[in-house]
Amino acid sequence: MWPWTQTCLLRRARCPPPQDKAVLQVARWEQKTRKLSQAMGSPYLACYVLGGVILLLNILRSHCFTQAMLSQPRMDSLDSPMARLVGLLLLGVGGVLVLSSFFALGFTGTFLGDYFGILKESRVTTFPFSILDNPMYWGSTANYLGWAVVHASPAGLLLTAVVALTYVVAILYEEPFTAEIYRRKTSQPDKRS
Question: In angstroms, rounded to a whole number, what is the distance separating the alpha carbons of residues 107 and 48?
Fold first, then answer.
């Protein structure tokens, strides 16, 4: 029912379904073959290009989310000043989590640089990672939820659940990989000494 409902709402907004899993498959392919880095002459350039694609897909997803949400009826029980305030608070918390994650990770850390061999000295453990695992995903989910509540949209609530489920799948793909590459990095002797 979820995929059918999502497809129906997104078709009504004339948009494709989320592409997060496909992007992660491209990143895994890059990690195994280094074909994108070779084609572009640099892992950084390849990462920036994939990051640009991810940003464009996120803009498209947000636009489609909004169009699908606004094309559906409003929920009377959510159409109140208190609900709107809760929605705005969710947007604020989500914004803080997303932006602080981006500042902590940088562009390449945010947009799958580890698949391109671009690693930080160690895993980031500063705020917001010190209080929550995967704060960018959960901040983004809070943004979608807040946007749905502000607009009193049951369709937005349903699509937020789909986005959250998509992020859970992304975490299941990413987390073991990230843990393994940083485990390997810490177990290797420092080559600069």
Answer: 8
Q: How far is CA 20 from CA 2, 33, 97, 112, 163, in A?
A: 16, 20, 19, 12, 10
Length of the chain in terms of residues written: 193
pTM check: above 0.90: no
Q: What is the mean pLDDT of residues 90-113?
A: 95
Distances 75 to 43, 91, 193 between C-alpha atoms, Å = 47, 19, 63
**Whole-angstrom distance, CA of residue 36 vs CA of residue 166:** 25
Joined tokens for residue 115: 């698949």
Confidence of residue 22 (pLDDT cuts 50, 70, 90): confident
CA 25 to CA 169: how far, in whole Å?
12
